[in-house]
């Protein structure tokens, strides 16, 4: 069962529009208002209706297809209430980008990363692990989020502070880059000069970039024992060649990394601590 509001979130349409479809076209036998609950079969019908209309199919034609929808063998209901899971099922690039723009506004980016983006990404992982999403659907969401973050990182900073720079990325053998790329964008939006290297970056490239840019800090992640070992290899090298460069590490195994500081779990707090460590007053996006 799901409420009208939950289905509206999954379908990315206003609640009142769902109610209009239900009442105007008689899609459900038991009709109610905003407080009504809808069984899983009819949730699937409403999600299909929203997909068809979003593609430009006239409502009257969409209704006919939805009414004829045989629900035996219909895919499981997506992870209830998750907007990213719903976008993964829809596979609509434009709709995913529109969602990310609306949910990650520039002035309060870090707050919305903590409150919306990271919880949503966890739900995507859970949906994939429980076979509610295919690998292709999960990768569609992940690649869409990465593309969104990369595009925004290329935009000019609102109030650049050129005196400090931070190098971010993942050490060799590590590929889960959304959290570190998100931090790169958070610092960029604060006006801090960032150099994002990407995933699985060899140690020599880290060292050369830090020296060339005169970086004040580096940020990386350690989500596993192997990642912690790779991060330690890097931070030990940086401690020798760039002793004035501080290292910040996020992830569940950050405390295993030597010559580094763990970032708080909160992106907002982590970005603030890193900005403070640079000796710069934080600048709101």
From TrEMBL:
This is B12-binding domain-containing protein. InterPro entries: Cobalamin-bd, Cobalamin-bd_sf, Meth_synthase_dom. It comes from the Bacteria. It holds the Pfam family B12-binding. One of its GO terms (molecular function) is cobalamin binding. Gene3D superfamilies: Cobalamin-binding domain (3.40.50.280), Methionine synthase domain (1.10.1240.10). Residues 163-285 form the B12-binding domain.
């Amino acid at each position: 069962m799901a409420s009208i509001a939950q289905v509206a979130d999954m379908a990315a349409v206003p609640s009142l529009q769902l109610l209009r479809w239900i009442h105007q076209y008689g899609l459900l036998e038991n009709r109610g208002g905003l407080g009504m609950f809808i069984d899983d079969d009819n949730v699937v019908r409403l999600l299909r209706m929203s997909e068809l209309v979003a593609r430009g199919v006239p409502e009257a034609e969409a209704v006919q297809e939805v009414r004829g929808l045989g629900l035996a063998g219909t895919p499981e209901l997506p992870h209830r209430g998750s907007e990213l899971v719903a976008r993964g099922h829809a596979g609509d690039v434009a709709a995913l980008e529109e969602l990310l723009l609306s949910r990650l506004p520039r002035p309060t980016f870090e707050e919305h990363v903590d409150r919306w983006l990271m919880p949503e990404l966890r739900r995507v992982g859970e949906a994939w692990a429980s076979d509610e999403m295919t690998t292709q659907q999960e990768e569609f969401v992940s690649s869409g989020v990465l593309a969104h973050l990369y595009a925004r990182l290329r935009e000019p900073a609102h109030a650049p502070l050129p005196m400090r720079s931070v190098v971010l990325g993942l050490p060799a053998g590590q590929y889960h880059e959304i959290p570190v790329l998100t931090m790169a964008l958070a610092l960029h939006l604060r006006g801090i000069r960032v150099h994002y290297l990407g995933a699985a970056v060899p140690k020599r490239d880290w060292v050369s970039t830090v020296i060339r840019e005169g970086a004040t800090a580096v940020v990386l992640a350690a989500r596993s024992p192997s990642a912690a070992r790779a991060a330690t290899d890097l931070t030990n090298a940086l401690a020798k060649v760039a002793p004035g460069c501080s290292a910040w590490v996020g992830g569940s195994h950050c405390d295993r990394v030597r010559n580094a500081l763990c970032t708080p779990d909160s992106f907002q707090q982590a970005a603030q601590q890193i900005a403070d460590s640079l000796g710069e007053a934080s600048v709101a996006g």
